[in-house]
Amino acid sequence: MEEKRVRTRMAPSPTGEYHIGHIRTLLYNWAFAKKYNGDFILRIEDTDRERFVAGATDRILEVIKSYGLVWDEGPQVGGPHEPYFQSQRLEIYQKHAQILLDKGAAYYCFCTEERLEKMREEQKARHVVSTKYDRLCLKLDKSEIEKKLKDKVPYVIRMKVPDNKEITFNDLVIGDISVPSSDIDDQVLIKSDGFPTYHFAVVIDDHLMEISHVMRGNDWIPSTPKHVLLYQAFGWDMPYFAHIPNLKEMGAGKKLSKRFGAVAAKEFLDEGYLPEAVLNFLMFLGWNPGTDKEIYTLNEFVKDFSIEKIHKTDLVAFDRNKLLWMNSQYIQKSQISDLPDGKAGLKSQIFKFFGGKYDAAVIEKILPLLQTRIKTLKEFADLAGFFFEKPKVDKKILSNNWKNHLSMAVEVLESLEKWGKSDIDEGLLSAVKEKNFKTGEFFMDFRIAVTGSKFTPPINESIVILGKYEVLKRLKAVLGSKSNIKY
Ligand code: GLU
After folding, report:
1. Aminoacyl-tRNA synthetase class I anticodon-binding domain location, by residue (predicted)?
2. Which residues touch 324 (CB under 8 Å, ≥6 apart)?
3. Which of 29, 161, 278, 411 lies 20 to 30 Å from 152, alpha-carbon distance?
4. 50-69 average pLDDT score
C-alpha cells in the first residue's frame, strides 16, 4: 500500500479556555507532522451551538501562537480544504448524510425529546446498563417519512448501527480494540437544528482533509468505534488512530484543578512561565526518549518524537514542581540581551511581561543578580521591586540595635570615596568589627532598611546598582533623620 502523506490535525471546540492539556496534544500532533515533513492542520469544531462561547476561537488561536506553534492549514492561513470552521461546512455534512440515507445506513428520526426521555426512563427501570434508542422510527415507511418531512415535523438523522458486528480497530499506542456493535447506540448524525454532531463532522472532515493520523486524548477511545462504523458505512479508508494519556493532577484526583494552580494554557504564560519551558515540560507528559536527556528544543523533539515511545498508561501526572524547575532552568540559561537572530533575551521578556513598568536599562543591570534566583518572570517583581520604588520598612522586624546599626552604615557609606562592591564590603565589615556588632544582625537590619525585605539578592551588589544617593536616602528615611546627604 502506498504510504499516505502525514497529515495531523488539532480540532479545538470553542467552548471555553484552551487547556494546557490541549497544548500537549497539539504539540504531539505538530511534532509528528514536522518529523515526516507533513502538514499540521487546525480545524475549529464549532457545531455545538449550546456550548459555543463567543470570542473563544480567537483566544484559542492567540494562545496557540503565543506558545510559538503554527499550523500549516486552518483559520487565518487558509489551505486547500477551506473552510476550516465546521459551522461553515453544513452543506458538506448534509450531503454526506444524504449519502448514508440513500445507502440505508442512516434514517430519519422524528421522536420528540419527551418520548426519548420516557423511553430512557423505562429502560433504566429495567436496569439497562446504557440506554439506547429503540429504533421506533426505523419502522416508518417511505410515505410516512415523506409526509412528516412535508409537514415540517422536526427530525434528527441517526446512524443505523449494524447488528451483531464486532467493531475492531487498531490503535497505534494501545493496540487492537474491539467492541460489539450491540454496545453502540444509533447515534445522531444531524441534529434537529441542522448541525452535525461531533461524531459525524469529525469523520467527514478527517476524511476530506486527508488526515493520516488522528492523535488525541484517550478519553476519545469510547467514541472511536462510532467513527469506525461511519468510515465503514462510507467505504472510506480509516486514518491511523493514536490515543494518548490524559493529564492528572500530581498527587490528587483525576483532572487538573485550579486549586493547585493554573489550568488554562494562557494562565501559565500569565504566571511568568516561558513558552519554551512549558513546551519542554509538556513533551514529557506521555512520552519519553528513553534517555536521561530532559532539556529539549522543539527541533530536537521533532527529531526524537515517536508514537512507539508514547506511554501506554491511562493518565500521566502533571508535576507542577517539575514545571517550576524546568522554567528556572530556562531562565538561567537565557541570554540577557536580545540575540542577533531577533530572539528576545530575558531583559526584553521581563520588560514585556510587566508591560514596560520597569526600565529596561535597570532590568539589564540587575538581571545578573536575579537570573539564578527567579523561577518565573513574575518572581522578578518580588525580588527586584525595591530597585524601582522606595520600600515600605516594617521597623518591628528590625533588631533592637537597629538605630546603631543604621547610623553606623550611614557614617561609613557617606565617607566612602569610591562606590564599588569591595569598597562597601571593606568599609562596612571593618566598622562592624570595630563596634563589636553581630555581623548577621547588622546586615539583616541594613538589608531590610534598604530593601524592605529579609530576602533579597546579595545586598552589597544590590546597593552598588542602587547608587550612593538612593541608599543613603533610604537609610536616613528609616532613621528619621533629615536627608542631609553630603558627598
Ligand atoms: N473537537 C474535539 C475536542 O474538542 C476534537 C476531538 C478529536 O480530536 O477528535 O477535543
Report:
1. 358-478
2. 375, 376
3. 161
4. 96
pLDDT on residue 482:
57
Is the Cβ atom of 46 under 6 angstroms away from ligand 1? no
Give 198 Cα–ligand 1 centroid separation in angstroms: 8
| Distance set, CA 57 to CA 176, 204, 358, 381 (Å) | 35, 21, 33, 32
The answer to whether the beta carbons of residues 302 and 35 sit under 8 Å apart is: yes
Q: 340 vs 12, 48, 274, 343, 366, CA distance in Å?
A: 36, 46, 20, 7, 22
CA neighbor of 8 nearest in space, from 252, 148, 206: 206
Collect all residues with Cβ–Cβ distance below 8 Å to 373 and sequence separation of at least 6. 379, 383, 457
pLDDT in tens, 340-392: 998 899 999 999 999 999 999 999 999 999 999 999 999 999 999 999 999 99
pLDDT grade, residue 2 (50/70/90)? low
What is the chain's mean pLDDT, rounded?
Answer: 95
Pairwise CA distance, residues 468 & 473, whole Å: 8
Helix (H, G, I), strand (E, B) or coil at 31: helix
What are the DSSP E strand ranges found in 358-463?
A: none
- Cα-to-centroid distance, 208 and ligand 1 (Å): 16
Q: Closest Cα to atom 10, ligand 1: which residue?
A: 12
Compute, in angstroms, the gap from residue 89 CA to the centroid of ligand 1. Answer: 17
Q: For ligand 1, say whether the CB of 206 is within 6 Å of any of its atoms.
A: no
Amino acid letter for position 32: F
Q: Does any domain span residue 216?
A: no
pLDDT of residue 180: 96
Q: Domain with 451 in it: what CATH number?
A: 1.10.10.350
Query: pTM surpassing 0.90?
Result: yes
The cell for 100 is 448514508
Question: From the alpha carbon of 216, which atom of ligand 1 is closest?
Answer: 8
Atom of ligand 1 nearest to the CA of 9: 8
Amino acid residing at 243: H
Domain count, the chain: 4
Of 151, 164, 114, 115, whose CA–CA distance to 135 is shortest? 115
* Measured distance CA(303)–CA(386) in Å, rounded: 45
Active site residues: 258
CATH number at residue 275: 3.40.50.620
Tell me the CATH number at 126.
Answer: 3.90.800.10
- Are 352 and 436 in the same domain? no
The proportion of the chain whose per-residue pLDDT surpasses 90, expressed as a percent, equals 94
Any idea which residue has 530532559 for its cell?
A: 294
Task: Answer yes or no: are the C-beta atoms of 97 and 105 closer than 8 Å.
Answer: no
Whether residues 426 and 373 fall in one domain:
no
